[in-house]
């Protein structure tokens, strides 16, 4: 494999610093709906699933998956929706309640900082910041196009219409409060019928927590001597969503520089990490996201004492379609 060399400026263009994240407050159909109108959406790598032309995209090149984030103040929630491909979250800051089902009452689970949730495809899901401060969750979305958008529960579309936002069948939002209207020949997004809704399962909480949730401190114990395999064919959460996820801690860092033919995204959870590569070095802080290209030699090491962890995501040859379902 031919190895690469990147200058510090070239690598910095592949790093999205937490403090430089640009939010969008009008990303989705529930942007005016009370209880959901204070959330912020971040598109870090790839186009994401935003329905707003105002969404800022930090890195447009996709490695076979998308990276995004959601930031919300306390008691703010994201409305019930579904995706056609994987949606994986880990909690960077705060305490979050995830809930699912047609009406959001089929089950729920509370995630603490570092916990990760590989949400099954084909179910309606939502989430809420139940902490006391502004919270942030990081997201990995399957596919280069993130599955072709969001599928909203019918009541979400109806509630949004009452507060001035109309979603077109093209997936674009129109704000009637600003005098916008659907173009001629363009219809509103149709509501799912009762028959279509039968295809969205209501999963029991016990099965979801057992098969789709991994707790941070369990993963840290597994990562004591080698990377903890979190999501993958032979990982703790056995799934093949088009990418694999590992957690690296202080004791599981590769001793030498390494090269891979896969795209690799580093998402720092705790601590500061020194990243050295053929051409330079830098320090990654909590919340930073770094897209390392195939063929580039790199080495990782915590730059300070104390707790250190990061999630490492790599693309696989698995198709980014529906993965595990209920």
Rounded Rg: 20 Å
The helix/strand series, from N terminus to C terminus, equals: HEEEEEEEEEEEEHEEHHEHEEEEEEEEE
In the CATH scheme, the class of the largest domain would be Mainly Beta
Q: What is the number of E strands?
A: 24
Pfam families: Cupin_2
Keywords: Metal-binding
GO molecular function: metal ion binding
Protein name: Cupin
Please provide a written account of the structure:
- The protein has 326 residues and is mainly beta.
- It has 2 domains: 19-214, Jelly Rolls, CATH 2.60.120.10; 216-315, Sandwich (Jelly Rolls).
- It contains 5 helices and 24 strands.
- The chain has a 7-stranded mixed beta sheet.
- A hairpin with a 5-residue loop joins strand 13 and strand 14 (173-175).
